[in-house]
């Protein structure tokens, strides 16, 4: 294949276009985790309540975060109303604040 990038380039393009392909190390792909703060969860719960589309269990509004496109709950802010949060993951600080506000967090399946 001498001359493959020089005088035989037109032959490569015409007859062997995949000859110079991707070879070697491929870095692992990473998945971005979409997170939400507690104050935003509180806003979502209040919006669900005002629209009348909120599900309620034990007097707490259920906020299903995976169905809204969120993966993780972060501990910034505070909850203003008692809610039941369904999430895939959460930080220890978020769990502490959720339990302190008479709310519940449940692991999503």
List segments where confidence is low: pLDDT < 50 over at least 5 consecutive residues. Answer: none
In which range does the helix fraction lie? 25-40%
How many beta-strand segments?
A: 7
Instruction: Describe the strand arrangement of the main beta sheet, using strand numbers.
Output: 2-3-5-7
Largest sheet: 4 strands, mixed
**Text of the CATH class of the domain at 35-107:** Alpha Beta
Report, as a whole number of angstroms, the end-to-end distance: 54 Å
Fraction of residues in β-strands:
15-25%
Overall morphology: rod-shaped
Q: Which fold does the CATH topology of the domain at 35-107 refer to?
A: Ribosomal Protein L15, Chain: K, domain 2
Mean pLDDT: 90
Order of helices and strands: HEHEEHEEEHE
Determine the structural class based on helices, strands and strand pairing: alpha/beta
Q: How many helices does DSSP assign?
A: 4
What's the Cα radius of gyration?
26 Å
CATH A-level architecture of the domain at 35-107: Ribosomal Protein L15, Chain: K, domain 2
From the structure provided, what is the oligomeric state, counting identical versus distinct chains? Answer: single chain
Short note summarizing the structure:
The chain is an alpha/beta fold and 109 residues long. It contains four helices and seven strands; from the N terminus they run αβαββαβββαβ.
How would you describe this structure to a colleague?
The chain has 109 residues and is an alpha/beta fold. It has a domain at 35-107: Ribosomal Protein L15, Chain: K, domain 2. It is 31% helix and 23% strand. The protein contains four helices and seven strands. The chain has helices at 9-15, 38-51, 65-68, 92-100; strands spanning 35-37, 55-57, 60-64, 72-74, 83-87, 89-90, 104-107. The strands form two sheets. Strands 2-3-5-7 form a four-stranded mixed beta sheet. It starts with 8 loop residues before the first helix and ends with a strand.
């Amino acid at each position: 294949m001498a001359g493959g990038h020089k005088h035989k380039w037109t032959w490569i393009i015409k007859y062997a276009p995949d000859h110079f392909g991707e070879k070697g190390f491929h870095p692992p792909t990473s998945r971005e985790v979409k997170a939400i703060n507690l104050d935003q969860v509180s806003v979502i719960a209040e919006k669900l309540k005002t629209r009348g589309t909120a599900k309620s269990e034990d007097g707490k509004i259920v906020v299903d975060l995976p169905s809204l496109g969120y993966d993780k709950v972060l501990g910034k802010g505070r909850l203003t109303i008692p809610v039941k949060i369904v999430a895939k993951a959460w930080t220890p600080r978020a769990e502490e604040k959720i339990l302190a506000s008479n709310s519940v967090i449940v692991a999503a399946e």
